[in-house]
Amino acid sequence: xxxxxxxxxxxxxxxxxxxxxxxxxxxxxxxxxxxxxxxxxxxxxxxxxxxxxxxxxxxxxxxxxxxxxxxxxxxxxxxxxxxxxxxxxxxxxxxxxxxxxxxxxxxxxxxxxxxxxxxxxxxxxxxxxxxxxxxxxxxxxxxxxxxxxxxxxxxxxxxxxxxxxxxxxxxxxxxxxxxxxxxxxxxxxxxxxxxxxxxxxxxxxxxxxxxxxxxxxxxxxxxxxxxxxxxxxxxxxxxxxxxxxxxxxxxxxxxxxxxxxxxxxxxxxxxxxxxxxxxxxxxxxxx
Length: 287
Description:
The protein is α/β, with parallel strands linked by helices. The chain is 59% helix and 13% strand. It contains five helices and seven strands. The strands form two sheets. It has a five-stranded mixed β-sheet, sandwiched between helices. Strands 6-7 form a two-stranded antiparallel sheet. The radius of gyration is 28 Å and the shape is elongated. The model has no long low-confidence stretch (mean pLDDT 81).
């Protein structure tokens, strides 16, 4: 049984750890909320871009290299994980999904975003074609644009036929799950367009200068950048939610351990007092 000094030291150590996990929990809450605000603030713009692209294709026979399907099966996967651990099963879920999809494909290219993604595929013996580091902590639109342009450059060189993004989708504040999204060829929704609030947008026809093809060249790249930025932001929000809940559980566990140790401390202290009283009594009787 631990003596009183050992128990006091353990209580102090666990309480110090609990203070750290509590601070990490609060930091994750702030970062998660910040990411969600950034996500929502950009949704309206990119929804408008999407609706404009749809309006160009609706009812027309125009084609585009980023929309037309390719016959090959060469597939590129952009896998988004975090740069750090201590986020529960956040990384393992999305990385295992990516790994299972990659194993199904005959010819693959792997682009990783985040240190954990890179280390995971290296451990699996899968070569990484491009790695984007130090992006997941605070992704910006410029980061998304740089990654998008790099990917499109390779796509334009006909190095692969499809591109998928594997990320963690944040469906609500408390719900999230690993997801896979086809980035290219771009799927065009020929149904009704909706705005950021989910309301139906009436069909509109515009006159584009100098022509629809030139406008599409700009809009599609803008839209793909927005999609990739959305996956980055959602992944960041999901990561911090997982880290928040993990740190909250760690803090609660530390509290339970401290409570148990305090019971042991009081019991050991009482035993020492009882032993001392018995010793004093025995000594008095022997005098």
